[in-house]
Request: fold
Amino acid sequence: MPQRFYPAVLERGAHDTFGVWFPDFPGCVAAARSQEDAMAKAQDALAHGVDALVERNEPLPEPTAFDAIAIPKGCNFVTFFAVGVEPPDESERVNVYLPRSLIARVDRQAAEFGMSRSSYFGLAASRMLAGSAGLGPIPALTAYVSPAPRTKTVVRRGGG
Reply:
């Protein structure tokens, strides 16, 4: 999915601070002591807002037009600006077969990180792919060495 641009409102806050909020993402805000820092933090805030919607299986809203944004009373408005965000890839269900003991270890580790099993496997795969792209080994993931393949030995007896 191509990058989407959402309108953001930069406002002056108390004590020489600046805040940013997004009309399309209620509760998604960023703040800093300078307008530049607040605008830079807005990028991360919007990315987290998009991720939260995706995790709840909610669609991304259509960006509101700047001229349709209502500035609330008491807002010390400075300017509008647009923030781009790359929506996450759509997920696809896959079936994999893994040893039960490995799945149990993954589930325990994922729970420690507050992640689902799917999110953990996605993170592990992404990190391994990044490592294979010349970024070096991934120590946290190289600790697991797959067991030797199970082989079946056939012994034939008899003459011949």
Observations:
- Residues 141-155 have pLDDT under 50 and may be disordered.
- The chain has two domains: 4-85, 100-142.
- The chain is about 35% helix and 20% strand.
